[in-house]
Amino acid sequence: MTLSSSTLSYTVATSPVKWYFVKTLDADNVRSDSSIWLSNADEVVRTVADDNRAIVDLPPVVDEALRAAGLVPVMESQPAFETGATVVSYKFVLRDAANNEVKRVLEQDITLTMPLSKTGSFTISAFSPSASYSAYDYAVYYYNGVEDVKLGGTVNPESGSVAVVTRQTGLFKVKRVVRAQSFSVTQTVPRKTFTPNGDGVWDEFNILYENPEGLVIGSAKVYDLSGAEIASLKAGTYNSEASLGWDGRRSGGEKAPAGIYVYQFKAGSKYYNGTVVLAR
Ligand SMILES: [Ca+2]
Questions:
Q1: What is the average per-residue pLDDT within 105-128?
Q2: Cα(119) to centroid(ligand 1), Å
Q3: How far is ligand 1, taken at its centre, from the CA of residue 118, in Å?
Q4: Taking the model in full, what pTM does it have?
Q5: Structural domains present in the chain
Q6: In terms of CB atoms within 10 Å, which end of the chain has fewer, N or C?
Q7: Ligand 1 centroid to 193 CA: how many Å?
Q8: What is the pLDDT of residues 216-269, one digit of tens each?
Q9: What are residue 63's phi and psi, to 5 degrees?
């Protein structure tokens, strides 16, 4: 539909669900790029990548908070990284009014959906792959400033896409890899020492795992070296569906002192544990 430039608000019926993106024309009839996708269902705000082949779905409350802070979520194709095992690469970033990238860990989960190949077309809700894929052959990686961290993600062989639920912003890559077919801990981030002082650098400890059998994860706790329970592990910010995280606080909310801690959790019937160093 085309609206007059004096239209500040426009209401559409909530049923059936429809998706829109907004384009603008200036006085010289120059058309803007596709904007964010808008849904009339109020459940999710969708942003489509600049190449129209990847999408990010944000809860409306997250989108509103970002925009209130003057930040616009954008998804940008990164062909420079698409070499070797990396099939596609996208940057999900927040841009301020001066178009600078603002680094931030989001308050809630968002879902990034990316294609498994450079070919095949994309419609609003699904990819149309040009080949069939295996659920075990691809994984999403996140570059955390030091290394590519394997997040995993859910591969959809029928639509030729992979989706990951995360709170991170930055560079994501889809790589062709061999995925674990039974539960395994992939890695911890940072490797050993985290510094939860709110400076945005290693403020949270994440344990990433692959859980293709969907084992129940439970009894996820942090203990001090005397064996006293300090806190419960929560869903991590790297991949909320396949990581556990600790923000360095006790269960009551106060900061835990610097020191060595033991984390432990149960996947199915088996216990996993390790140590982490909290530095202040
Ligand atoms: Ca820190």
A1: 84
A2: 40
A3: 37
A4: 0.85
A5: 19-176 (2.60.220), 184-278 (2.60.40)
A6: N
A7: 10
A8: 999 999 999 999 999 999 999 999 999 999 999 999 999 999 999 999 999 999
A9: -60, -45
